[in-house]
Structure formats: C-alpha cells, structure tokens
Design brief:
By secondary structure, the protein is mainly alpha-helical. The protein is built from 7 helices and 3 strands, in the order αααβααββαα. The longest helix has 17 residues. It is flat.
Length: 135
C-alpha cells in the first residue's frame, strides 16, 4: 500500500503519517465529542460542577441552581448516561455526585481553570482597580 502524500510538502510527512493514523480512529473522536456535548449546556455544566464538590439529591440541586426538579432530572439523566456522574439510593432519596474517574476529575479541573481565566472574581477586579491596573 502506497502512502498518500499531502498536497503541499512542508517536510513533516513522517509526523503527518502518524497523525493520519490517529485521525482515522473516528470512533474515539466521537466519544470525546459526546462528552463535550454534555458540557455544551450551561445548566449541565453548573450541575456537574456542583456535584464535583459534594453529593446531593435532586430537590436540593434544584434549589441550588434555581431550576425545576424535572429540568434538573433531565440534565442528571444525560450526565449519568455519559458516565460523568453516579447515583446511589438511600431509602426513597437518590443522591448524585461526580463519578470518581479520571475523565470527571479532568473535566472538573478544566471547568475551574477556564472559569479562573475567563471569569475573573470580583475581588480580583476590585484589587486591580485599587492598584490602578486595567481589567
């Protein structure tokens, strides 16, 4: 089998050949895209972030994120189906929390770091203003 050459020669054919092999693993990329789809909704990001910090029931999650219980349940089902959260039943109550997986920990860290970079805290803005710095 002859290796297909790229239209433009930039001297990186060996690296491109390796990357091409990785790109052919479309199923892997779909799995990653599916996880990120879960975090494409603000409400799901808020719920997931909350559950990264502690375990909680639907009623309390609803109160914390100011959403109806059915709406929260809808998001919880999607997060659970993607493997980002888990649940446990205690009597009639179901408690949810972030899954104890590397994927959940990494996504939690990504959310926290993104918020830190993109959403400066009010006290930091005030400190910068006091110091005469621009926002």
């Amino acid at each position: 089998m002859t290796e297909e050459r790229l239209p433009h020669h930039h001297g990186n054919e060996e690296e491109c050949g390796h990357l091409r092999g990785q790109l052919e693993r479309a199923g892997d990329f779909k799995a990653v895209a599916d996880v990120f789809k879960q975090l494409s909704d603000t409400s799901r990001v808020r719920i997931f972030w909350l559950l990264c910090h502690f375990e909680e029931c639907v009623i309390n999650i609803s109160a914390l994120v100011d959403m109806t219980s059915p709406a929260v349940s809808h998001h919880l089902r999607q997060l659970k189906a993607s493997g980002l959260i888990t649940s446990r039943r205690e009597g009639k109550e179901v408690y949810y929390r972030a899954a104890d997986t590397e994927q959940s920990r990494l996504l939690h860290l990504a959310i926290e770091k993104t918020m830190e970079i993109a959403c400066p805290r009010a006290d930091m803005i005030d400190a910068n203003r006091s110091a005469g710095k621009e926002e």
